[in-house]
Amino acid sequence: AQSVAQPEDQVNVAEGNPLTVKCTYSVSGNPYLFWYVQYPNRGLQFLLKYITGDNLVKGSYGFEAEFNKSQTSFHLKKPSALVSDSALYFCAVSRNSGGYNKLIFGAGTRLAVHP
Amino acid sequence: EAQVTQNPRYLITVTGKKLTVTCSQNMNHEYMSWYRQDPGLGLRQIYYSMNVEVTDKGDVPEGYKVSRKEKRNFPLILESPSPNQTSLYFCASSPSRARSPDGYTFGSGTRLTVV
Known about the structure:
The complex is a heterodimer.
Chain A: E1 3-5, E2 10-14, E3 19-21, E4 24-26, E5 32-38, E6 44-50, E7 56-58, E8 64-68, E9 73-78, E10 87-97, E11 100-105, E12 109-114
Chain B: E1 4-7, E2 10-13, E3 19-25, E4 31-38, E5 42-51, E6 54-57, E7 65-66, E8 76-78, E9 87-94, E10 105-106, E11 110-114
Parallel strand pairs in B: 2-11
Antiparallel strand pairs in B: 1-3, 3-8, 4-5, 4-9, 5-6, 7-8, 9-10, 9-11
C-alpha cells in the first residue's frame, strides 16, 4: 500500500541555521512527490514537487528537497531558516487511482524557528 | 485570481442538525476532492469527483455526502453531524484526472465543531 511517513511531529531550529524536515515514502512505480506548507488559519500552499530528472528540486521561499530513490526519501531543506518559516509542513505522494491523481499525505511536521 | 473558495470558514453546530459546506473553484478543474485534517493523522480523503455527476468515496466517507451538479461546485453535506466529525475540512481541485505532475489547489479550510 502506498504511504508517506513524516517521522518527526515537530522540528525546532534557531533562526539562521539550516533546517531539514524528513519524509519517507512507500509507493510502487515512479513516485510524484510534493511538499505543502500550512500557515496558521490558512489552506495548504504548494512548495515544490519532484517528477523526474535532477534529484535536487528547488521550490518557493528558498526551500529545496532532495529525492533519494535508494532510501525512498524526499527530505525538505533550507540553508538558513527564518522565523516566518514556522508552519506545518506536509509531504505527499501522488498515485494513479482509477485513472485519477490521488494525493496521499503524511501526518505533518510542525516547524518552529526560534529567534 | 485562480482560487478555491470554501464557506463558511468557521461553523459550530449541534449533533444531528444537517449542514452543508460549500466549495467553488474558478479554474475549470475537472477533479475536486474533500479532505479532513486531524492532529497526528494528516489529511484524509473523504470524497472526490472526477467530473460533473461523477463522484466516489475516499478513505473516510462515512457520515458525509457530496454532489457535483456543476463543474465549479462541490458541496460537502453532513446529514446528521456527530461530534467525531469535528475537524478541519479542506476542499481541493486539480486540472486533470489522469496521473499528472500537477498538485492540488486548496481552499482556506472550514473549521467545524459539532457539540
